[in-house]
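Morning, I've got a small favour to ask if you have a moment. I owe you a coffee for this, so here goes:

…
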Amino acid sequence: MPTVIVMNGPNLNLLGTREPTHYGSSTLDDVEKLCRAVGDDLALDIDFLQSNHEGVLIDRIHAAGADWRSGSLLGAVFNPGAYAHTSIALRDAIKGAELPVIEMHVSNVHRREAFRHHSYISSVATGVIVGLGVKGYELAIRSLADQGEQP
């Protein structure tokens, strides 16, 4: 069964309690349940990860690139959180691993502070979803399944 990785960056473990006017009331556990339900619907395994540590995310991206090349992985849904606006290292990891990534943000970053308007991840992402709440995770998983990108 093919797999989709759903990766979440820093502070996303606080979903449901952190700034609910921007991020809503769904928790990260709710997001994981949603993603697994979509995976079940599409006959996909979901590998779910959240880390506040950039190196953990980079290591997973590197491994995911090898999984994608082997044909066992369709790609990744990645909500990099604030790392979208700061991490050239994550951008380079995605590009180097040649991993299909849908960049995902719960809030509309373009309606927020100016520093959130630029993402280093977007230039190497297959697609970008912003501002659709946690529903964006479902849309991103379905998009990867529809594209069926394999090497």
Q: What stands out?
A: Strands lie at 3-8, 45-50, 73-79, 101-105, 127-130. The chain is about 40% helix and 20% strand. The chain has a mean pLDDT of 92.
